[in-house]
Structure prediction request, 568 residues.
Amino acid sequence: MNVRAAIDQRLSEALSACTGRNSPALVQPASKPEFGDYQANGIMAAAKRLKTNPRELATAVIDTVALDDIVEQLDIAGPGFINIFLSAEFLAARLAREQPLVSPAQHPYTAVVDYSSPNLAKEMHVGHIRSTIIGDAVAKVLECLGHNVIRQNHVGDWGTQFGMLITYLTETGANSQVLEDLEEFYRAAKQRFDADADFATRSRLAVVGLQGGQPELRRQWQRFIDISLNHCQALYGRLGVSLSREDVHAESAYNDDLPNVIESLREQGLLEESDGAQCVFLDEFKGKDDQPLPVIVQKSDGGYLYATTDLAAVRHRHNQLNAQRVLYFTDARQVLHFKQIFAVARKAGFADAAMSLEHHPFGNMLGKDGKPFKTRDGGVVKLAELLDEAEARAFDLVTQKNSELGEDERREIARVVGIGAVKYADLAKNRTSDYHFDWDQMLAFEGNTAPYLQYAYTRVQSVFRRGNIDVESLTGETAPSEPAERTLAVTLLRFQEVLEQVAADAYPHYLCTYLYELASQFMRFYEACPVLTAPGKVRDSRLHLCLRVAETLKNGLGLLGIETVERM
RNA sequence: GCGCUCGUAGCUCAACUGGAUAGAGCAUCGGCCUUCUAAGCCGAGGGUUGAAGGUUCGAGUCCUUCCGGGCGCGCCA
Prediction:
């Protein structure tokens, strides 16, 4: 149940009845504890429009609204806020064992989530991590709310770079099953491509052959793609990312459809030739010197571009996948590109007005010094090495904190904590601007970090372990009385509204902020309210509250693709 | 040149269609372990939200101008 939405709806109805026009109540979580659990901000604006006294209007709304089943008390405060206090009965009823803390959306829809999308010519590096984990978290949240999620890993597997790679492999006879080697070959091939004009020509011919379906070239290419995808899958596995081979819908998959895209644009009179290239010009895009800005869909040599592929993808997602929402997670440099693609797609009818096309951009990963994140010698940081280091650092830490645990268990904790720390540090700040990657900060494991949340979870588990608690034997009820208990209870009930917000805005950091708040409140509760030594009924109530906290932490972290351990 | 984006405490970040005294963590300083794990809790200091105007009951949030950073702007993706 979305408590906030329920209160908002009823207060909005009451407010609208009082004002005689549609007036939103604007209910939010209260900004301070003394203002209650939620607050309504909409009275002042409504009173303003009616030129009436906001406090009087608030009184009328409170007299009108029916919230007795949820709310204990409604106060008018300040210039015309309504402070909302949830009733103890309501809290207890919603937290009872049989009540789900997450309920599915009333109107589920089909959402395509386009994320990760690495270039298969290279090993995955830090530049791929943001798209991969942010997109995956949003996909999981949408799915958890009952939406039909179609993951699309739009991997780069086509184009000149593959031509030169295949040519290099064929000509040198180089052979390997390991992607790291292939990356070496890629570097060598690129060097020859730049230095040797004949080699470059042969490479371009290879691309033509590839696109034309020449069997030997296709076989070579496929072998390479397989190795590369296996490498990606291994990393997805380590990262707890839910992408599988079935989600791969590569650039090459649209190859046969590209001429149709061009033809469709031509038929609709949207195509214009400019300097030999096929372009779509739209009035809303201007380039240098106020010149119209083209979206080039076919090069003067007849080749297609990523704009063409993306247009084909939009059409596919509309016509074949029947998506109502399409969410793209790519870096911020592509904002113009996607604005253009979306505009052309709409104009050409590849997407209708009912299909929401959303680009969710994010900034670059920067090092501590504010410059692009690189290795000491200026190289690209490989994702696999990044994760290795995270685990190694976490292992040192867990050894230092808990040396009595066996090595295997410490390794496992280090894996869960290290990977979690890297992911959480990124997910917790979804800035559209750049992101500062700082080992010391994320692996300090203090404050708003994954380990803090994971530690809160282990503390709950520890209570159950210590008390030899059989969860089934509990009454499954809770009656929060202490302030720390009450706060915890109210926060637990906010899980649903937070998930819906993440789904709506595609910002996983809302979930992180929420989980951190929940964990902090649990820590305070843990200090203030003894559980195992409390008298019978209170003990049962607190144990059930603990259970709900653990469930929510595990569930919430799971949606972020972060695991938990029983002790650490 | 045009466009997009960002600028909040020493550092990294929050602040939900404009709401109450701008909040956290790190760092600094001071308390709390014979009682469920101290990777914790409690407290203190730290701010002209880049600058100046404007809109209004109310602006970190909206508008204008300026300053500073990042990115993009015809056949790469």
